[in-house]
Amino acid sequence: MIESDPPLLQHYEARFNHPVEVPPALECDERQNEVVMEECQLPLIDLNGLRLKCQDERERLACSTAICRASSEWGFFQVVNHGISPRLLQNMRREQVKLFQTPFENKATCGLLNNSYRWGTPTATCPNQFSWSEAFHIPLTKISEEACYGEFISLREVMKEFAAAMSELARLLAGVLAENLGHKKGELEDICDESTCFLRLNRYPACPISPEMFGLVPHTDSDFLTILCQDQVGGLQLMKDSKWVAVKPNQDALIVNIGDLFQAWSNDVYKSVEHKVMAKRTTERYSIAYFLCPSYDSLIGSCTEPSIYRKFTFGEYRTKVQEDVKKIGYKVGLPRFLV
Fold this sequence. Notes:
This protein is an alpha+beta fold. 32% of the residues lie in helices and 20% in strands. It has a single domain (8-19, 31-307), classed as Jelly Rolls (Sandwich).
């Protein structure tokens, strides 16, 4: 364990009365000690067809069709030519690594980034609900506040630029998906609110008891859509055709996945797919996720009838998810809102 790591092993052992014998470091390739997973290539979509000012309507239609098809068949896809510069992505990664390399005590006690630091899973009631990870969960409304950054002054400007770029991309994609359902251009954008959208900076430390440990437990996202920027380490897996498949990293692409709210809003046309992250034995992993959310009082109703789900607000949905996690240790999600 290094000074910046949270005490995940000690917490895991104490919480579950589950002593763990850490095997000695191995010289062989880490992959020899991991469960072999089928690897998938997510649908790859070139967004030039949407972003070019002098748009060819056929290109735009082909791009939009690919986005909607992937959202229905996979619930996940990856995008290139997305408009976020490699320079910005590199700068954000550099600042993120610097932040997580701070001693654990500083991260846990000094109130960084709106006191948003979290690690492990305090609500876990059994080992398979425990996440071997740490994160900063930052509302967009706090990203501009100088007081949130402490000594990490250089992080502020980079994060402001990064959040703005991710927000623009998320709204572009959400607009395409909404129009495909017959909604007016900008209708979904109008209910998405900066006060509820957020960035999550993730680090998955090397885990001595991998491969049995989740970096992030299986879940679906409770938003409209998520955009993920990840490194090349791998570990993300999703449920496809009733089995877990590993997502092959693509250094040029961002990953997009549909959230619960879009599944409900689309009356199950788009799929919010269960996914997880598996910890690595000797390698740490970094990622950043942007979550597109509506205001808490926004009413989520299906776009067609008969509706599969009853109408609910985002605030009601979020409260029910939190209650379930607290009471039973995991999220139930959309099945709570079936008609």
